[in-house]
Amino acid sequence: MPAITTNTPMRLSNAAARRLFLDRHGLAEDPSKRLALAELQALIERLGFVQVDSINTVARAHDLILFSRRQCYRPAQLKSLLEEERSLFEHWTHDAAVIPTRFYPHWNMRFARHEAQLKEQWRKWRRDGFEEKFDDVLAHIGENGPAMSREMGDGEKKSIGGWWDWHPSKTALEYLWRTGRLAVCRREGFQKVYDLAERVIAEEHRQHRPDEAESVDWACASALDRLGFATSGELAAFWDGVTPAEAKAWCARRLGKDLVPVMLETADGRSHKVFARPDLDEQAEAAGEPPRRIRVLSPFDPMIRDRNRAERLFGFNYRIEVFVPAHKRKYGYYVFPLLEGDRLIGRIDMKCRRDAGVLDVTALWLEPKVRLGRGRFGRLEAELERVRRFSGCDRIAFADGWIREPR
């Protein structure tokens, strides 16, 4: 290991940074490799978590994230790990996610922090009466078994406001889940089914309760291991369980011990200061070259979840437009990024019409200076065929003029 110094930052080229980042995100290996349950568990532990999302234009986010890394992945495997093996649990990072259960002890810090934060927030959002429902909800589930929100709250008045249109019992269910009294034992029709945490999470994981300092250290160190290099803000955002101030203080404490400053070369040739382990050069050298094949990524893929980081590393500006009014969208409702080797080369708009068994490809936008030659077109066709099979469609249909000019 090289001598640690905080005076002269190491330098990391953009090419090496991309290679290391893709390696950390499971995108530098042959995606045709086998995937038994043990390999799937290891892949999710390597990623840290997999975001869960309900949108299903081609496949749900969590399924496409895993499929892009292992083409033989099937959703039943994830269901088995979640609902039978219980080696994964569902909770919150920056959003709903499936997480390795062995990380569960560190969620106790999040549970404790949510106790006060959510009560204060939800009272402001006029969610009256949910606190009075805690005992009723726990008693109902304790006596009758797992429950969904639609099975509770008959006759209760809903709160005001769009997605947050919850009756008090639904709000109580969500609060008790967020604070660790309940756990999600499965989903039905993508609706959460809640049960008592002690019936879902093994006792060994529930009884181990690290203190806050230990959990902050774990969160920052494990985030850095999965990112390869990061700012303190990126470390805080990875699990979204520690504050930016806590991550900044952690970096200050570790600097000169097992953390070094690094000047990262960005895609546009500028320099950006980050932190990394002292053996960063060896890590980057050991990272494999990603395969040249094209892969469709979920808009919620962990590789591009941090849009600013993706733009710095790959020069790829990506924003999901689900919540943008149709007439204001630049590309489309749910457009998928395309990864080729170590480059994000474009985006594609497509949707599975399951009633007709057709994967409709509406539009393709390649990045400036990316050309659709014969070889690249063949790689794109091969990936679309893989996606077609995964989504259960019978054929692919291309819209007229689907190859668009770069924007």
Poorly predicted regions: none
Terminal residue distance: 45 Å
Q: Which radius of gyration do the C-alpha atoms yield? A: 23 Å
Topology order in helix (H) and strand (E) letters: EHHEHHEEHHHEEHHHHEEHEHEEEHEE
Instruction: Kindly name the structural category.
Output: alpha+beta
Continuous helix count: 14
Helix % is 25-40%
Number of strands: 14
The residue-averaged pLDDT reads 93
Shape: globular
How would you sum up the major sheet? 6 strands, mixed
Beta-strand content estimate:
15-25%
Characterise this structure:
The protein is an alpha+beta fold and 407 residues long. The chain has 14 helices and 14 strands. The chain has helices spanning 14-24, 37-47, 61-67, 75-85, 107-124, 134-144, 168-178, 203-207, 212-227, 232-239, 244-254, 280-286, 307-314, 374-391, and strands at 10-12, 50-51, 88-92, 96-100, 182-188, 191-196, 260-265, 271-276, 294-296, 335-340, 343-353, 358-366, 395-398, 403-404. The strands form four sheets. Strands 9, 10, 11, 12, 13 and 14 form a six-stranded mixed sheet that branches. It has a three-stranded mixed sheet with strand order 1-7-8. Strands 2-4-3 form a three-stranded antiparallel sheet. A hairpin with a 3-residue loop joins strand 3 (88-92) and strand 4. The relative contact order is 0.13. The model has no long low-confidence stretch (mean pLDDT 93).
Question: What characteristics describe this protein?
Answer:
single chain, 407 residues, alpha+beta, three-stranded mixed sheet, globular
